[in-house]
Design a protein that fits this description.
Blueprint lengths: L2 H21 L15 H14 L8 E9 L19 H11 L5 H5 L7 E2 L8 E11 L5 H7 L5 E8 L12 E9 L19 H12 L3 E4 L15 E9 L3 E3 L2 E10 L6 H13 L7 H6 L14 E7 L1 H7 L14 H23 L1 H6 L11 H11 L1
Parallel strand pairs: 3-10
Antiparallel strand pairs: 1-3, 1-4, 2-3, 5-9, 5-10, 6-7, 7-9, 8-9
Helix pairs in contact: 1-2, 3-5, 6-7
C-alpha cells in the first residue's frame, strides 16, 4: 500500500505531461483539505509532487469514461438536482466518483465544477452499452476499479481515456447509434389473431419493415416525432445516416429483433416515435403515406413505442479522432479493446432486463393495444391539400 500514492503520482505525472504542453498553467489546483479522510495521503502525494514540481498540487485531468448501464428503474441519465425522489444514472455515478476520491464532495453538488458533460441524455428506463461522459478528475491509482466498487453491478465504467482540456463529450460527438430490441409479434397484422410466443416474423414482413425504416434516412423535419418542437423550428431538422432491422432470434420462447439507427443527434422521444409509427403502418393501423406527411407542417399523431427496448449503443467522435487521435499526445476515442466487455455487459444486464420485463410486464403487448386509439387519418387541411396535389 505504501507504494500506491507514489505509483498514482507517477501515473498522474506521466499522464500529465501531454496536457501540460496543451493547456499550460490553465489547470485547476485542488486543496488537499477538501477531502478530509484522505487528506494525509493527499498531503504526502502533494509533498512528493512538490519535490518534482513546486507549483503543482494534485492537478485534475480531463478524461472520458465509457459507461454501460441497465436503465430500468431509473428516471433517465441526467441528474436533476433538487428532485431526489427521481433517481437517475448520474446520481449513482457522482456518488461513486466522490466515494472513490476522484472528485471532492462539492463537485458532486455543482457538476459544472468538474466540467461534467454527458454525450446523450437517455430517457427513463433506457439503457446504454456505450455512453460517454467527459469530466475533470484526479487520476488516482486503480481508478476504474475504485469507481466500480462504489457502483451497483448494473452500472459499469468499462474504459477511460485522456482527452484535450477543452473536450466536451456532447459538442464533440458527431453521431450516435441506438438499438431497439422488440418482440417481433409487434409487427403482426392487427386483423390476425396472434399467439405472442408462437409468432415468427416472415421474410416479406421484415422486408416491409426495412423499406419503411429506410424512409427515415437523410435530413427531414422531425417536429412530429417530439413534443418539444414546432414545425418551423430549424432544430427539428435531423440527419439520419442509417436505420434497419436485423434478422430475428428467439430468447426464452419469444422471438425478438433489433432495429439499429445511426443519426447525427436525436430529440426527446424521436427514435421511439420513429419506431412506433413504423409498427402502426406494418400492423395496418396507418397508411404508408403517413411518413411523408409527417415531414410536413401539419400535426400528425405519432405513437411512441415503449422505452424498455431502447439502448444507446455507441457514440462517434469521427472529427475529433481525425484531428487529435493521431497527434502523438492523445488516443483516438475508439473502444476496440472494450468491445468484449461491452458485449458481456449487454448479455448479462441489458438483454435479460428487456426480455424479463417484456415477459412479466408485457410493455410491448400493452402498448400495442393502445394503437387503435390513435387518429392516423389526415386532418381536413391535409385532405384538401391532397386533393389539390392529385389534380
Amino acid at each position: 500500500p505504501s507504494q500506491a500514492p507514489a505509483m498514482a503520482q507517477e501515473w498522474g505525472a506521466a499522464a500529465a505531461s501531454p496536457a501540460k504542453r496543451l493547456s499550460g498553467s490553465g489547470e485547476v489546483l485542488e486543496r488537499p483539505e477538501e477531502n478530509g479522510h484522505a487528506s494525509k495521503r493527499l498531503r504526502r502525494d502533494a509533498e512528493e509532487a512538490e519535490a518534482e514540481d513546486p507549483n503543482k498540487k494534485s492537478p485534475k485531468r480531463k478524461i472520458v469514461l465509457l459507461m454501460a448501464y441497465s436503465g430500468k428503474g431509473y428516471h433517465g441519465m441526467q441528474r436533476n438536482v433538487g428532485s431526489s425522489q427521481f433517481k437517475t444514472i448520474e446520481d449513482d455515478l457522482v456518488s461513486a466518483l466522490v466515494q472513490s476520491g476522484c472528485i471532492p464532495e462539492n463537485h458532486g453538488e455543482d457538476m459544472k465544477k468538474m466540467s461534467f458533460q454527458r454525450c446523450a441524455r437517455t430517457d427513463k428506463g433506457v439503457s446504454a452499452a456505450g455512453q460517454i461522459v467527459s469530466l475533470k478528475v484526479r487520476l488516482i491509482d486503480d481508478i476504474l476499479e475504485k469507481i466500480n466498487n462504489h457502483l451497483p453491478s448494473h452500472i459499469r465504467i468499462l474504459g477511460l481515456k485522456r482527452v484535450t482540456g477543452g473536450f466536451n463529450s456532447k459538442n464533440k460527438c458527431d453521431a450516435r447509434t441506438y438499438s431497439y430490441m422488440l418482440p417481433t409479434f409487434a409487427f403482426a397484422h392487427k386483423d390476425h389473431d396472434v399467439q405472442e410466443e408462437l409468432y415468427r416474423l416472415d421474410k416479406e414482413t421484415l422486408e416491409k419493415v426495412n423499406k419503411l425504416l429506410a424512409c427515415y434516412k437523410g435530413t427531414h423535419n422531425f417536429h412530429n416525432f417530439t413534443s418539444q418542437k414546432g414545425p418551423r423550428d430549424p432544430s427539428a431538422k435531423r440527419y439520419i445516416m442509417e436505420m434497419y432491422c436485423g434478422e430475428p432470434f428467439v430468447r426464452e420462447n419469444i422471438e425478438f429483433a433489433v432495429i439499429k439507427v445511426k443519426g447525427q443527434s436525436f430529440m426527446m422521444h424521436q427514435i421511439r416515435k420513429m419506431i412506433g409509427l413504423v409498427i402502426a403502418i406494418v400492423k395496418g393501423y396507418a397508411a404508408e403515406a403517413i411518413i411523408e406527411r409527417s415531414w410536413g407542417e401539419e400535426k400528425v399523431d405519432v405513437p411512441k413505442a415503449p422505452g424498455l427496448g431502447l439502448v444507446l449503443e455507441r457514440v462517434h467522435f469521427e472529427k475529433y479522432n481525425r484531428r487529435f487521435g493521431n497527434d502523438g499526445l492523445h488516443e483516438p476515442l475508439e473502444w476496440t479493446e472494450e468491445e468484449e466487455k461491452i458485449a458481456v455487459f449487454k448479455e448479462q444486464y441489458i438483454y435479460p432486463t428487456i426480455i424479463n420485463t417484456e415477459r412479466e410486464e408485457k410493455s410491448m403487448a400493452n402498448w400495442l393495444s393502445t394503437l387503435s386509439i390513435h387518429d392516423f387519418s389526415s386532418s381536413a387541411v391535409g385532405m384538401q391539400a391532397n386533393k389539390k396535389n392529385s389534380k
